[in-house]
Amino acid sequence: MFVDQVKIYVKGGDGGNGAVSFRREKYVPLGGPAGGDGGRGGNVVFVVDEGLRTLIDFRYQRHFKAARGENGRNKSQHGAGAEDLEVRVPPGTVVSDADTGEVIADLTEHGQRAVIAKGGRGGRGNIRFATSVNPAPEIAENGEPGQERNVILELKLLADVGLVGYPSVGKSTLLASVTAARPKIGAYHFTTLTPNLGVVDLGEQSFVLADLPGLIEGAHEGVGLGHQFLRHVERTRLIIHVLDMAGSEGRDPYEDYVRINEELKRYNARLEERPQIVAANKMDLPDAEKHLARFREKVPDARIYAISAATRQGVNELMRAAANLLAELPDKPVVEEVADVEERVIFKAEPEQAQFEIFKENEVFVVSGEKIERLAKMTNLNSYDSIQRFARLMRSMGVDQALRERGAKDGDTVRIGDFEFDFIE
Fold first, then answer.
1. Which class for 331: exposed (0-12), middle (13-18), buried (19 or more C-beta within 10 A)?
2. pLDDT at residue number 215
3. Please, are residues 10 and 45 in contact by the beta-carbon 8 Å criterion?
4. Which among 214, 257, 267, 354 could disulfide-bond with 220, CB atoms 3.0 to 4.6 Å apart, if both were Cys?
5. Under the phi-then-psi rule, with left for phi > 0, alpha for psi from -120 to 50, and beta for the rest, what region is 414?
6. Contact at 8 Å (CB) between 86 and 49?
7. Quick check: 12 and 66 in contact, CB under 8 A?
């Protein structure tokens, strides 16, 4: 099964908790703090493996969570950091955030690595909070939560040459005639439902050829196989445009040529600049010569090779022309990736202060924001000193004042993440 798009969940490991501990050594009266820091959580790292061809493995495992860091210990011992979780992906994988559409990584080369979800840092032990005013603090942080996100993996095949054209023009037959690939071939539309790859070996020259599913009008909007086809064209360095020059289904080869190129252009304007060779196929059938002569008149600048994939007429000349043209082209095509990121306007206490938003759910004031929620999760709610420190941080961020401006009064319930408390003037 060929799978070229999946949605998965990834989460970096949480950091380990910091420790509250004091020196209790003989002959050391009033020993100071000795609680160590927690270790960092592991990252979720995607690594390109050239041995993989599809994203099929992600159909059966969709959740990836890195390990948590170790907690800090007494005697100023820090917890160990967790190892990164490595996830293998095939070359040509584009990773994007499922919520924002932002492209996180474009992975094309074997061994290439990208951190997709960062692990949280370890919480600080009480040794970090000692000051001249408070030399023996009972404050320690919980570990920072690891980053979590839903991501979409999209595989764009890495082929040197892509075969494009309407259904049933002979793309699969051409691939089978010049490579060891054995794609499904049939006398009906959309015989090819998934891309097929083959290596064309010309002795001193060789390249990877991709037979891509047939296009129809509206493909740039997702009609038919639409985007499942077009995403793979972006990676090819050269396009071979296969035409049924015999017009065996009553279509005009020139109109097919114009429509397919228009679909490519509408999907990605850069594809209009991609070098292209026209393979005038089915020249062994009646009326093919007449259609070819008319096509040459309408498209005089096109590189046209008359072939018959079924009889192999002109196929070698076509492949050598493709190889010679590839030798002049850059190793990688220029592809413009565009990610639409939706911007949100949120409530700010003051322009220069940290961002957060406040809204009401029934009678509860909810304070949300990445930084404030992270601070709440890293606060040890079983420690009075830690809670007092969190209250000071909220005041310095302007949360208290913002709650007053939104109508919070003595005794009202405030929620930050999973932490609920009463608002007190």
1. exposed
2. 54
3. no
4. 267
5. beta
6. no
7. yes
* Tokens found for residue 139: 């404050």
- Where does residue 33 rank: exposed (0-12), middle (13-18), buried (19+ CB within 10 A)? buried
Read off the pTM. Answer: 0.66
Half-sphere exposure of 164 (CA within 13 A, CB side): 35
Q: How far is CA 160 from CA 20, 66, 208, 259, in A?
A: 60, 36, 5, 23
**Residue 262 contacts by C-beta under 8 Å, 6 or more apart in sequence?**
none
Q: Is residue 219 classed as helix, strand or coil in its secondary structure?
A: helix
Which residue from 263, 164, 270 is spatially nearest to 222, judged by alpha carbons? Answer: 263
For residues 250 and 394, state if they share a domain.
no
Asked if residues 148 and 158 have their Cβ atoms less than 8 Å apart, the reply is: no
Where do we find the tokens 């060891």?
A: 180
Contacts of 29 (CB under 8 A, 6+ apart): none
* pLDDT score of 3: 53
In whole angstroms, how far apart are CA 21 and each of 24, 38, 245?
Answer: 9, 13, 83
* Domain extent at residue 200: 161-328
Place of tokens 């292209």: 276
pLDDT at 227: 45
388 and 252 part of one domain: no
Kindly state whether residues 146 and 251 are assigned to the same domain: no
For tokens 């071979």, the residue is: 240
Rounded-to-integer distance, Cα 236 and Cα 276, Å: 11
Q: Say how far apart CA 267 and CA 396 lie, in whole Å.
A: 49
Same domain, yes or no: 127 and 203: no
Q: What are phi and psi of 319, to 5 degrees?
A: -65, -40
Containing 238, the helix (H) or strand (E) segment is strand 238-244
The last residue of a domain, from among 123, 155, 187: 155
> Whole-angstrom Cα distance, residue 158 to residue 7?
21
Closest CA to 201 of 323, 332, 53, 325: 323
Tokens of 260: 């397919």
State the pLDDT at residue 353.
44
DSSP 149: E
Residue type, 301: D
Positions in the chain whose pLDDT score sits under 70? 1-3, 180-195, 213-232, 331-354
- The pLDDT, as a whole number, for residue 219 is 37
Residue with tokens 């309407």: 166
End-to-end CA distance of the chain: 63
Give the total number of structural domains in the chain. Answer: 3
DSSP 95-137: EEETTT--EEEEE-STT-EEEEEPPPPPPPPGGGG--SS-SS-
